[in-house]
Specification:
This protein is of the alpha+beta class. It folds into two domains: about 120 residues, no CATH class; about 30 residues, no CATH class. The strands form three sheets. Strands 5-1-6 form a three-stranded antiparallel sheet, with no helix packed on it. A hairpin with an 8-residue loop joins strand 7 and strand 8. The longest helix is centred in the first third of the chain and has 15 residues. The radius of gyration is 20 Å and the shape is globular. The chain starts with a strand and ends with a strand. About 20% of the residues are buried. It binds zinc ion. The site of zinc ion (ZN) has 7 residues, from helix 5.
């Protein structure tokens, strides 16, 4: 089973990748960007926090954190939703998830931010918002391939995460490419659009 937590109005849902990885100064990522920034925001009265939860995610050394805050209560407008998403990024949450969440929010999709877990959070103050039968991690690419080939994708994924990052930003390239140096000053668009695949003679654009 997979358990889905969709951000409520009073919650920040953070996805903290590799809590102990060193930042530029050597300080662990989670300490510098989660604990200290959260402390500073609370001390400065910028976030009114009633509860903080830290739980392991499926991947080793990765954590989910939930910050329960009354700062946005009774506000479900776009500005409040975007503020929550910005706080999540400020507190160290995964940038790739965050940029897609922000784009979903400004495009008016509901459920911009969520956490998917393989078990409910133990002793948590509320139940998950949804659950599905999937036992392995939901791969966005896999889910969309299933739909494109006429199969049945996870219904909860379809409902809560129906827009993929490449629908928002365009598909990402997975091929191994050669480095293309750019000149300083005005950069020719042909260079921006160039793609030199390893082992191929000529570059292609597009
Ligand atoms: Zn599922």
């Amino acid at each position: 089973m997979s358990y889905w937590y969709v951000a409520h109005d009073d919650e920040l849902l953070l996805d903290l990748d590799d809590y102990m990885r060193p930042t530029k100064t050597g300080c662990p990522w989670g300490e510098a960007f989660f604990r200290r920034r959260l402390r500073n925001a609370m001390a400065a009265g910028k976030l009114k926090v009633s509860e903080v939860w830290l739980v392991r995610s499926t991947s080793e050394r990765h954590f989910h954190a939930i910050v329960r805050t009354s700062s946005f209560i009774n506000r479900s407008d776009l500005a409040a939703q975007v503020s929550r998403l910005i706080w999540q990024l400020h507190l160290g949450s995964d940038l790739y998830r965050g940029r897609a969440d922000l784009m979903r929010a400004v495009r008016g999709f509901p459920c911009a931010s969520l956490l998917i877990r393989d078990e409910p959070i133990p002793n948590f103050y509320r139940k998950p918002d949804a659950q599905c039968d999937c036992t392995k991690k939901h791969s966005t690419e896999e889910q969309f391939n299933i739909v494109n080939s006429g199969g049945i994708a996870c219904p909860v994924f379809q409902q809560l995460r129906g827009v993929s990052p490449w629908e928002l930003f365009g598909p990402s390239s997975k091929e191994s490419e050669k480095f293309i140096p750019l000149p300083a000053g005005r950069v020719p668009l042909e260079l921006v659009m160039s793609k030199f695949i390893e082992g191929e003679e000529n570059g292609t654009s597009g």
